[in-house]
From TrEMBL:
Alphabetical keyword list: Signal
Extent of the signal sequence: 1-19
Native organism: Modicisalibacter muralis
Domain of life: Bacteria
Protein name from the UniProt record: Uncharacterized protein
Length: 173
């Protein structure tokens, strides 16, 4: 009887670990984003690492998915003949629902596309011999990321949330 009770107790303790959620994006999903700060590339600086992006919501968008409102995406930018290309590296999101906060952080493989579906971003500001020699991407320029492969990012432990839950329990809330 004692062994059965211990097994039930251990199973109950394991349930919260199994109840964690994931941030899921299927391959070819499209999400609307924009840069946080202006990005300028030219012949002297044709590449830039760790460009920060954030999700946006746009009326009339052709996006197929939305990221939580509080996300940061890192990407690499590269000047190409047509303009600028961005490829993502990581994503970190905080999803707030009532008093609960879920944190997701992991790899994200995606490429930037214009709203019309064209690969890369048409942000060329100077051309020579038919090639883009300078491009600037402003925060006002919304575009889409196309997810390259199925992405499942598990929820991370949130020590601050656990401490807050303990405080609420101790206070009798």
């Amino acid at each position: 009887m004692l062994k059965t009770l211990a097994c039930i107790l251990l199973a109950g303790l394991a349930i919260p670990a199994l109840a964690q959620t994931t941030l899921s994006l299927p391959a070819e999903a499209r999400v609307d984003v924009q840069v946080i700060d202006s990005v300028t590339l030219n012949q002297n600086t044709p590449e830039l690492a760790n460009v920060l992006l954030r999700p946006v919501a746009r009326i009339g968008s052709s996006a197929t998915h939305r990221l939580p409102d509080y996300c940061l995406i890192t990407a690499d930018a590269r000047l190409v003949d047509q303009g600028m290309r961005l490829s993502t590296n990581t994503v970190t999101c905080i999803e707030a629902e009532g008093d609960n906060r879920a944190i997701f952080s992991g790899e994200l493989s995606a490429a930037a596309f214009e709203r019309d579906g064209g690969f890369g971003l048409d942000v060329c500001t100077e051309r020579r011999d038919g090639r883009c020699t300078s491009a600037t991407l402003e925060p006002s320029h919304a575009f889409q990321l196309s997810i390259g492969r199925d992405t499942e990012i598990a929820e991370l432990d949130n020590p601050a949330e656990e401490i807050n839950e303990q405080r609420r329990s101790a206070a009798g809330e």
